[in-house]
Design a protein that fits this description.
It is a single chain. The protein has 69 residues and is mainly alpha-helical. Helix content is 72%, strand content 0%. The protein contains four helices and no strands. Helix 1 crosses helix 4 (53-68). The N and C termini lie far apart (39 Å). The mean pLDDT is 94.
Length: 69
């Protein structure tokens, strides 16, 4: 299996797509499968970086807080 040489880029893509989907559909109505489908990645790729949808949301909040501070 090939290794991703730029995991920070993958994380940024996951967060960008997740933010869009959470904004469009709402957090409660967005599933990990929705994120996977929008990215064209495997579920394993998502779960390699994030344990859960809640973990994705926590990372989005952290990213927004960094912009504010």
């Amino acid at each position: 299996m090939a290794r991703n040489k730029h995991p920070e880029e993958t994380v940024a893509k996951i967060l960008d797509v997740s933010m869009r989907l959470f904004t469009e559909q709402g957090y409660e109505h967005t599933t990990i499968q929705d994120i996977v489908d929008a990215l064209g990645m495997s579920k394993g790729a998502i779960y390699h970086h994030f344990k859960s949808k809640e973990d994705v949301m926590d990372a989005l909040i952290d990213r927004q807080m960094e912009k504010i501070l």
